Amino acid sequence: MITRLTIISLVFFLLAPLSSSLMAQDSDASGSFKVNVELPVPWVDYHKKRAARQKEETRSSGKRPARTSFHPGHWHGFYFHFSNLATSSMKINQFSEIELHDGRSYGWSLNGLQASTALNRSKSLLVVTGVGYDWNKYRFSDGISIQSIAGTSQIVPNNSDVLTSIIKTQYITIPLMLDWQFNSFRHKKTFLALGVQGNFNTRSLSRIHYRNGFGEILRQDINSLHFRFFRPDMIVQFGVGKICFHTTFALQSMFKGGKGPEMHPISFGIRLIPFE
Hints:
14% of the residues lie in helices and 48% in strands.
């Protein structure tokens, strides 16, 4: 007959080896005991091995890790663009009395100064400004010119004596743009910048090559046409990496109100030399 004492002795006999394997008794000076139990954590070992393997692969391939920093802005640089004229409804080179020679109308911009500040912690959203210099040449079709007559800038069409007619303008430019940058394929930065640009006219030149009874004459007039001293433009920049496309559209006519035809300069170009 199995008594209660026999059952207790059997249970103690079975649990004693298990308890000794789980507990390691380390006595210290105070006589207390410590229990050391080590449990396996497979996911920790996995991530450690994975990080070590990636580090070894990067070292053996010689490739540098991808950058996570963002560009401070894409305004500064040397730009080339094609210049054109548009109506207030953005219809390019569609005027009733004048036509621009598209292939021979161009310009360039030298944007040397730039300042920017980040709007978020990752520096992917910036406010960008700076100072630049803009030069444009507009060449009109044969027999067409814009001349200062009776205190206004007027279109003179269908004049067979006019061989070539060119207008050149120079501006100091100050932009204010919102530059948004984000990662794209192969860790390159894609960006889109929108804003306004103030143009301050510093010089204009009207050059007309015509002939009369005495032969061919080249006439040049400096600041004779009635350009606005200040003109706001809408500006858009977009690209990937160091490639930057650039376009502007004048929000006002290039001539003063009531002093000339309604013509809005527009340009399309690309940055040739980034300043970094």
